[in-house]
Hints:
This protein has 443 residues and is mainly alpha-helical. It has helices at 15-29, 34-49, 57-65, 72-86, 88-99, 106-122, 125-142, 147-158, 168-177, 181-187, 189-210, 220-234, 239-249, 255-273, 281-311, 314-325, 329-346, 349-366, 371-384, 393-402, 406-412, 414-429, 432-435. The longest helix has 31 residues, at 281-311.
Amino acid sequence: MLWQHLEPQTIELGWDFYGPVLLFVLLVALAVPVWAAIGAAASLMLVWSGALPLSLVGEKLFSGIDAFALTAVPLFILTGDALVRTGLSRKFLDVAEALTQFAKGGFGSATVLVCGMFAAISGSDAAGAAAVGRMTIDRLVESGYPRPYACALVAAGACTGILIPPSIAYIIIGLVLGISASTLFLAAVIPGIAILVSILATNIIMNRLYGWEGGGNIGMSEYFSRLWVALKSGWYAFIVPVIIFYGIFSGRLTPTEAGATAVVVTIVMGFILGTMRFSDFPAMLVSSAKVNGVIIPIIAFSIPLAEALAIIGVPQGFVAVATGISDEPWVLIMMMVLVLIAAGCVMETTPNIVILAPILKPLADNIGMNEIQFCIMMITALGVGFITPPLGLNLFVVSGLTGESILKIAARAVPFVLFMLAVTLLIAYVPAISTTLLPEIYK
C-alpha cells in the first residue's frame, strides 16, 4: 500500500497526534464536510510531526485515488441509479412480494428481500434506502406497520448495501489493504446473507409479537401461480445481478468490468422497455456524480492522514496498548468490534475504512486473525452504524423521505441492531463464516 514503503517510528504520542485529532473533532462538530476535516487534520499532523513534507500532500491526493479498482465505485453507483430510473427495481419488489406471500408479515419480509436484491447490484446502502423506501414505506404503513417501524425496517434492510457483494466498502478496504476485491466479494457472500436473514428474522418476530401485518392464508397452487406471474413479468430484471455475480465470481470480469457491463445492460434494457429516454441521462449522471463526489474526496484526503498515522507509530501504539490490557485473542477481538461499532456510530464508512483499517490490521495479525475475516468483520461492524445515532446515515435518508423523527426511527431500529450485532460477533469469532467459499490459499 501507499504507506508500506515508509518506516514507522514508534514514538510516544504527543500533540502531533492529539492536536490534529481535536481539530478533526471540532471541524466535524461545526458541520464542516468530512473530507475537509480529514484534510485539515492530516496537514496539521504532517506539519507538526515533520513526518512528510507538506508539499507532497497534493501529490498523495492524486496518487491515492489513481487506482483502476476505484473505477468500479462510480459504475456500481450509476447502475443502481439506472435501475431505479428504468423501473427494474420495481420488478425486484414484485418478485420478492410473490416469494414471501405465504408468510404472515409477507410484505415486510419482501421489503427486506428487495433491499438485499438492490444491494447485490448498487453496492450502496444510502441509494438502497432511498430507492426501496420510496416504493415500500407507504405500503408498509397501509399493511399495518407503524410508520417509525416501517422506516426502521427499510433502514436496516438497506444496511446490506455495503454487506452483500458487490459492495463499494469492500472495494475500498481491498484498495487500502492490498487485497483483491473479487476475493472479498466471495468471502462476503455468507456473512451478507447471514445479516439479511437476521433482519428478516427480527421482522418476523416483531410482527408476531405485535400482529401488525396479517396474510399468509394462501394455498400452494395460488402461491405458485402468483410467483410464476411475477417471475414471468420481471425475470429480465435479474439479468443484471446475474451478470455481476457470474462475471466476478467466475473470474471472467473484474469488478470494474462487471460494473461497466451492468450499466450498459441496464440502460439498454431501459430503452427496450421504453422506460428510459436520452433526456433522462443528465439527471441520472448528476445524481450519481453527487454520490461519487462524496466518496472519492474522502478517500483522497484520508490517505495522507493514514500515512501520517503510520509514520508517527499509531498502529504500533494501538497494538501495544491493546495487548497491554489483555493478551487473550477473544478479548482483543471484542475490543476491535467495539471500536468499529463506536466509529460507525459517529463517522461514515469510507473514512473509517481508510483510517482504521491500517491501525487495526496489525492487531488482527498479532492474534493470528485471517486477513479476509478481519475485512469482513470490519465492514459488518461498521454497517451496524448505519442505523445507530448520532450519524446513522440510513436513518437520515428514510427520515428525509418521510419526515419522521430520527429518534423515533432509531428507537424502532434497536431490535435490528441487536440481531445484527449477534451476527457480527459470530463473524468475528468463527472464521469459517468468512472463509468457507474461498480457495484453500486464503484460509
